[in-house]
Amino acid sequence: MSGVFGRYFKGDRVIWTVVILLSLVSLMTVYSSTGSLAYRFHGGNTTYFLIKQLIFLGLGLSIVFITHLISYKVYYPLSTILLGVSVPLLLITLVFGATLNQASRWLEVPGLGITFQTSDVAKLALIMYISKILSHKQKDIKDLRQGFVPLVIPIGLICMLILPANFSTAALLGLACWIMMFVGRVNLKYLLGFTGLGVLLLGAFIVIALQFKNVGRVHTWINRIENFASGDNGDGNYQVEQSKIAIATGGIIGKGPGRSTQRNFLPHPYSDFIFAIIVEEFGLLGGTVILALYLILLFRSALIVKKAKRTFPAFLAFGLALLMALQALVNMMVAVNLIPVTGQPLPLVSMGGTSLFFSSAAFGIILSISRSQSKTELFDGEEPVEDNN
Q1: What are the domain boundaries of the chain?
Q2: pLDDT in tens, 88-111
């Protein structure tokens, strides 16, 4: 069996195990948490969402498999193209995108009736591009004009375009890029200055937004923050209260698969609050295992970085794993009421969509990098990792 696995599934086997385990958890939990949806929209046919999620996961695992066979070198030139495509996509989405909860996040593919979240494309493109620039500029990375400015311009542009519709995604992406620049030896005083400028711009954005506090998305943000801070029984707190009930009644070992009761009361138990359903059904032990899986992903990616002889794949593997781990932590923190409601899905676990597909692509790229570590050749523009790093 191991011989067959080694022949077709290359790369880090621990990460492959994480992918498979998260997929199994996703299938069980989505099936359990979509019962109310099935009765509301599909006449009680509970297998509808099971089959749908099975198809999504099958496509996602296919993406992981195909992507892990593609050389990481493809993403070096592709990053610039994807970033160039992401900017107009985000602009079009802001103006013409499909709106849900006062947020224009989705764009419809003409003629197909399929919508996708353009910020997922932008996240992947930006991590690739920052990895490329960090790799290419290592000799000038301490210089303001040569090393720092080429990094902050695309980061600022992409995050600003995502911000109006999806504040949490913009913040997570900006944080991941900041950590990547820190690890990439960017001058700390420039990073701190950039952070200060970001705080000032965010403050100005908040001041302007408060002038339109009863309009669309701004009203949603203010309500979520006020509910979190005050504990008022608003919509945001209703979600959190139901989530805390689910977690509290789960205990140590949980109620068992498919035995959640809060799935009938908790809004979006299959996406934003899926972690609460996991803890209710599998207990604190199950929740700890899920957290451990994402930390293992981050740890194994750090080992890939440590073994890497080239800077581009090292930064790329670290950036993608970091972004998924941060997103998972935010989803879990919302479920236990440590931060306001954000709407971040649990990577590879929440009910399928573009987030699942792009998480699959990220896993595949990381596995591709681990698969190619035995090769030592470089290509134009890439710098070798310095021995003292």
Answers
A1: 12-69+213-372, 75-211
A2: 999 888 877 665 555 556 666 665
